Task: structure prediction
Amino acid sequence: MNLSRLNYFCQLVNIGNFTRAAEQIGIAQPALSISIQKLEQELGLKLINRAEKKALLTSEGKVLYESATKLLAQAKQVELELQEMKDLSRGTIRLGVSAMMGSYYLPDVLTSFKKEYPHLKLILFDQGTSTLEKMLLNGELDLALVRADQENPQLSYSGLIEEEIVAGISTEHPLARRESITLEEFCYQPLVMFHEDYFLREAVGQYSNEHQIVLDIRMETNLIELQKSLVKNQVGITTCLSMILKDEAEMVSLSFKPIIELKLGLAWKHSRYLSKASKTLIEFLETKEVLTKY
Result:
């Protein structure tokens, strides 16, 4: 079976339109149509509903798509393994991190990593931990920092980052002199929050939904410095990691009562080949004690 035709077929399914798919692939639209027709002739099956606008795939096409995506992923893994056998000094790592972890935990250590391994290409993806886990499972990432207190059986984990989630409050706020705050008290304050799907919003969202509290969210942003500025100017209070506020003169951190802890692990899909480049990054992070071993 021709892998190029399978690849064209899968890209067509993902995009859902012959013209746009051809543009994405970089071929003429008639060439894409001919490739799909040849695939159908080779298999003796009708794969595409050309007259149906609502349903692109036939039932046979759906079965092929599921199998083809797995086959193409395996082919990419074989290609990667062969490339590494030729040149172990080169490689690409697709690393998923949340905005806060990328901004505060990793800049110095990733700079050091690039100096030590200049030929390894590092591509960072900034998303919430839930989205990062889905991207790992879909094969879109090689490694990602995801929740380690809710381990997924399809993932392997190496190393752990533990931090306390606290309430970030202006020093001028009426609650600033307290040592702790409950989630209920927090939920009734004006808030500056991360977007949904981020762990720093999860506990607040769950509590407010369970207790039917309508949150007064004055602004949603993943820009940490903007969040700090809004909190300092008493637009609202926020959630953040305790270490973020250590050197902030105009903000204080209040522990939640009970304490909310965050555990993140560096994870990868264990059914996928873990490249030499990815293994090198894991070992580097452990050596620099960014990650503590389980």
